Amino acid sequence: MTTSKPSATQPGDAFVWVWLPGATDPVVAGLLEARGSIVTFTYGRSYLDRPDAISLYEPELPLRAGRIEPRAGLSIASCIRDAGPDAWGQRVILARRTGTSTADADTADLDPLTYLLESGSDRIGALDFQSSPTEYLPRTETAPLAALQQAATALQEGRLLPEPVATAFLRGTSVGGARPKVLLTEDGRHWIAKLSSTGDPYPVVKAEAVDMELARRVGLHVPATQVIRSLDRDVLLVERFDRPAAGGQRRLLVSALTILGLDEMMARYATYPDLADAVRSMFTNPDATLRELFSRIVFNVCIGNTDDHARNHAAFWDGRQLELTPAYDLCPQPRSGEEAAQAMAIGREGQRASQLQVCLDSAAVYHLDRAEAGAIIDHQLTVITEQWEKAADAAQLTEVERRQLWGRQILNPFIHYGYPSQAVLEQVGRNARARGELAREFGLLSGADVAALAESDPPRASAVTSSWTAEGKVFTTGAAGDPRFPGFQFGDDGRPLPVIAEVLTALGGRLSGWELALWFTGGNGWLGGSRPVDVLDSDPELVVQAAGHLAADLLG
C-alpha cells in the first residue's frame, strides 16, 4: 500500500457546541484556537449572556470572559480531550486523511482539532465541534452493523475503505478506547457495539460480557449489555448512559483523568486515593460514591481487570457537582502467571498489588471500616463463585472459554494471598466447580420452569413453588430474590419426590441450599460411594438413612 503524509492544511480553530442540561438542541459555547503547542478556549459572549449557561467543567474551564489556556502540563483542556476520539477512532481518521491504515501509523501526525472536527457528532458526552458558530451540521452518517464490522476488519488488515461505508465508519468511531467499536441506535436506544478483533488471543468480547454480568449480580451500577452474533463473530452491545431516555438530550461527563488534572502522559500518577479525595470535595453523595468506588476496585481485582486506568472511570457534570457514571470497560486482562497489579494505586502509600488484602487494608481511604470492607469483599467472592455459571451462560461462553477465564483472570489465586487462607481458596474453587457440574447435569430451575414441569398455570408458579418450599417438600439454592430448584428433586410428573421431604426432615435445616445440593450430588460412604441423587428412585429409604447419619454427625 502506498502512504502519504497528512495534508498541510490543518484547522486553526473549532467551535464548541454543548447540550445544556435538559436541552434537546445544542448551543454554541465557545471557540478553540490552536496557538503554538497548545489549544486555548474562549467562551462566546452569547453563551455567557445565557441565564442557563454552565461551565463546561470546573475548575478547568471556569465560566468567565477571556481566553483560557490549558492547565499546567496540558496541551488542551482535558474535558475537551475527553470528547475526542481515542486510539481506535484516531486510527480511523488517520487512515481516511492519509491513506495510512497500518497498525504502526502515527496518530500524532494529525492535530487535536482535526480529530475533533472529523469525528462523528454522536460522541460520548454532551459536546460537539463545528467549523461554524451559527450553523450546526451534525456528522451522523450511519451504516448497518455488518458493514461497519467489515470496515473494521479491512482497517486492521491495512485495506482502505470505499464510500459510503468509509464516511459512516468514520462517524461511528468517536468513542474512546483502543479496541474496535462503533455506535448504533435502535428503537430509540443508543448502544456502543464492541467488536471482535482479528488478533484477539482470547474471547475478549465475551470476557467483558461475563464481567459486566457479574458486576450487575454483585450489585455494581452498570449499563445494560447483551452479546449478539454478526457475520459469525461476537459483538458486545453496551447501552450508553450519556443519553437520557428523553429523546434528544445528552449528559456532560468527564473522565477521572480530567478530574485529577492529568493527561495521558501523566496518567501513571493517577491513584484511587486521589480520586477518593476528589469524591469527598466535588461529588454528590460522597459516602455512597466512595462505597461504590471501593466496590469497583474490589471487583476489578476479582475479575483480573488491571486496565482500570483513569480514563476508564468517569463522572457526570451538571455545572456544579459530579456524579459517578455507571461502571464500564470491565474486562479481564491477559495473565500468564499469578502476580498482577492494578493500573491505579489502591492505598495511600502506592500499594497497587491485585490482592484483596490490599483493598481491606485501604478501607479507611474510602470511608469504610474493616468490617464494612470485608463484607463487601466476601459478598463479591460469594456471588461471583455461586453465579459464575449463570453469568457465563448469559455471556454465551463455551466450556473451553469458561475454563480459560476461571481461576486465571477471574478469581486468580494471587488475589487471595493473605485473604483468606489458601485452604479456603481451594475449597471455594472446588465448590464452584461442583456447582457448575450440578447445574449442567440436573439444571437449576426457576419457579416458572418448575410450574411448567408440573403443568401448573404460569400465574400460579410463585404460589406453587413457595408452598412446596414452605412445606419442606423441596429446597432452593441461589439468592433470595432468584431462588433456583435443583432439577433432581422432581419426578416425571413434575411434582416433588417424597424422599426429598424425608431427607429435609432428617437434616432438620442444618444445611444451606447449596450444601444440600452438593450433599445429594457428592459421593457418600453410607451408600458405598454412590451419590444420593443416583439412588433416589431405586432405594430412597437408604438415602434417608444416609441423611440421618449426617444429621447425627452434625449434632456431634
Verbal overview:
The protein is of the alpha+beta class and 556 residues long. It has 19 helices and 14 strands. The protein has helices spanning 45-48, 78-81, 87-98, 112-118, 145-156, 165-171, 204-218, 256-259, 272-282, 286-303, 356-361, 370-394, 399-405, 422-442, 447-453, 461-470, 498-507, 513-521, 540-555, and strands spanning 13-18, 27-35, 38-43, 67-68, 127-130, 181-186, 189-195, 225-230, 233-239, 253-255, 314-317, 322-324, 444-445, 485-486. The strands form four sheets. A five-stranded antiparallel β-sheet has the order 4-3-2-1-5. It has a four-stranded antiparallel β-sheet with strand order 6-7-9-8, with helices on both faces. Strands 10-11-12 form a three-stranded antiparallel β-sheet. α9 runs antiparallel to α10 (286-303). Mean pLDDT is 87; it is low at 1-8.
Tell me the Rg in angstroms.
28 Å
Q: For the record, give the distance between the C-alpha atoms at the N and C termini, rounded to a whole number.
A: 79 Å
The rough form would be described as elongated
The percent range for helix content is: 25-40%
The main sheet comes to: 5 strands, antiparallel
Counting DSSP E segments of at least 2 residues, the number of strands comes to 14
Strand order of the largest sheet: 4-3-2-1-5
The share of residues in extended strands comes to 5-15%
Secondary structure class reads alpha+beta
The number of helical segments is 19
Poorly predicted regions are 1-8
Rounded average pLDDT:
87
